[in-house]
Design a protein that fits this description.
By secondary structure, the protein is mainly alpha-helical. It has helices spanning 12-21, 27-37, 60-88, 92-119, 129-144, 147-178, 182-214. The chain binds fe (ii) ion (2 copies).
């Protein structure tokens, strides 16, 4: 099998690069493409976004701090989104669960700020396009779903958020330990445990009530 240039596709690297640069062959054009096609354009928010192409991340410590700033941003966005989800939920158990998780989320933000302090770095956010996308989708699906299935849509959206947080905190706990910061790891573990408990609770609500009511 050969690609359009006639060279064998066996070389993943060549095929992959060709696909990435869309034939124009420059990193600048890839970045330009990213800006144009991104759900929330990187330049439009006026916030700094460090990411895949950044040279600011040189060490494990940089990576840890970057990811901490990513989850700090995510938690703040979740704190802003939860009141809207509370307003949309019809099931009492689900609404109560969202309300409690809003209070927990404020605690998560405080713990992350404590980790910044313990680690001796400034508490600031780095825009996270993943959580922006998940929250935008949550807003869209819960707005489009009929009342009968809205709670099921809200649970599914909330679980996507929880799973994002779980993956970030899981990574941060492991990296904090690797960097010799058990004090930071302990705080992050508390957030991780609460996200996991929330996820399990959402599953229970869905299985016991919400999905059955929507079926
Ligand atoms: Fe959280
Ligand atoms: Fe959460």
């Amino acid at each position: 099998m050969t690609e359009r240039s006639g060279r064998p596709i066996g070389s993943y690297r060549e095929a992959d690069q060709d696909c990435l640069v869309g034939g124009s062959g420059t990193t600048a054009s890839l970045l330009d493409w990213w800006e144009r096609t991104s759900l929330v354009p990187r330049k439009s928010q006026g916030r700094r976004t460090m990411g895949l192409f950044s040279k600011d991340i040189q060490s494990m410590d940089d990576l840890f701090v970057h990811t901490l700033r990513d989850i700090y941003y995510a938690e703040k966005q979740i704190e802003r989104s939860l009141p809207k989800m509370i307003g949309k939920a019809r099931n009492d158990t689900l609404r109560k669960g969202f309300e409690e998780h809003l209070a927990q989320t404020k605690g998560h933000i405080e713990r992350v700020e404590q980790v910044f302090k313990q680690h001796g770095v400034e508490a600031k956010t780095v825009r996270c396009q993943a959580i922006d996308g998940i929250l935008a989708e949550a807003d869209e699906i819960s707005g489009e779903a009929s009342e009968d299935v809205r709670d099921a849509a809200l649970v599914a959206a909330a679980q996507a958020v929880e799973h994002y947080e779980i993956t970030r905190y899981g990574t941060l706990v492991a990296w904090a330990k690797e960097l010799g910061r058990p004090d930071c790891a302990a705080l992050l573990q508390q957030n991780l445990d609460e996200e996991k408990a929330t996820d399990a609770r959402l599953t229970k609500v869905a299985e016991e009530r919400v999905n059955r009511a929507a079926a």
